[in-house]
């Protein structure tokens, strides 16, 4: 069994978005350092343990430059930023981002990659380009990275019910669960589904 990776500094793709915001808060609450990779770093307000870099998640060379020096990368493929202008099912942007990240991280000597998004292409690829599906599966299989595919939360947790405190709490719980279950590398080379529902505390 692989030893858990020592994670202190994380690069985060997909901001600004409710999911990336929740992940950012959860990471900072755990005392970790976070580098948000965005088009314009000046959009990110300065905070303790938080910095920003410019970068393109769809270009391997840009990825390698942007994530140099971090221990892990989290990419929210389902975020509004990474899906902007994409095709109806979002697969093309998902494909481009995953390939760029798989190629860029080893160049930067980053071992850990967490991909949060709609991974339905693993379940039903009948309507998708077969050559890209095959390339994506092959690239994941041969990658030296400790990657994990995490299914994005359902509409109840991630849609636009911004005035519903239950939805916000659920998203925060999901973010914490992703970090606890995935960040050390214990779910490497797997696709997992994280429960977004807050768990009731057991009675003493």
The gist of it:
The chain is α/β, with parallel strands linked by helices. It has helices spanning 18-29, 60-67, 80-83, 91-107, 130-142, 155-158, 165-182; strands at 9-13, 33-38, 50-54, 72-76, 112-117, 146-151, 190-192. The protein has one domain (9-192): 3-Layer(aba) Sandwich (Rossmann fold).
Overall radius of gyration: 16 Å
Looking at the overall shape, the CATH architecture is 3-Layer(aba) Sandwich
Topology, number of strands: 7
- The CATH superfamily bears the name NAD(P)-binding Rossmann-like Domain
**What is the CATH topology descriptor?**
Rossmann fold
Write the layout of secondary structure elements.
Elements: E1 9-13, H1 18-29, E2 33-38, E3 50-54, H2 60-67, E4 72-76, H3 80-83, H4 91-107, E5 112-117, H5 130-142, E6 146-151, H6 155-158, H7 165-182, E7 190-192
Parallel strand pairs: 1-2, 1-4, 2-3, 4-5, 5-6, 6-7
Helix pairs in contact: 1-7, 2-4, 4-5
């Amino acid at each position: 069994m692989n030893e858990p990776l020592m994670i202190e500094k994380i690069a985060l793709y997909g901001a600004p978005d409710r999911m990336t915001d929740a992940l950012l808060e959860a990471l900072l609450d755990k005392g970790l350092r976070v580098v948000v990779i965005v088009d314009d770093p000046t959009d990110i307000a300065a905070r303790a343990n938080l910095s920003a870099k410019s970068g393109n998640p769809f270009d391997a060379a840009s990825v390698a430059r942007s994530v140099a020096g971090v221990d892990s990368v989290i990419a929210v493929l389902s975020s509004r930023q990474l899906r902007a202008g994409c095709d109806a099912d979002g697969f093309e942007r998902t494909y481009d981002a995953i390939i760029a990240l798989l190629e860029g991280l080893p160049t930067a000597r980053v071992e850990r990659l967490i991909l949060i998004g709609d991974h339905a292409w693993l379940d039903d690829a009948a309507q998708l380009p077969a050559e890209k599906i095959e390339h994506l599966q092959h690239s994941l299989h041969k990658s030296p990275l400790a990657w994990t595919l995490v299914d994005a939360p359902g509409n109840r947790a991630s849609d636009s019910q911004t005035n519903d405190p239950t939805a916000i709490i659920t998203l925060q719980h999901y973010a914490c669960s992703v970090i606890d279950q995935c960040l050390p590398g214990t779910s490497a080379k797997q696709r997992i589904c994280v429960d977004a529902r807050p768990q009731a505390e057991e009675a003493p």
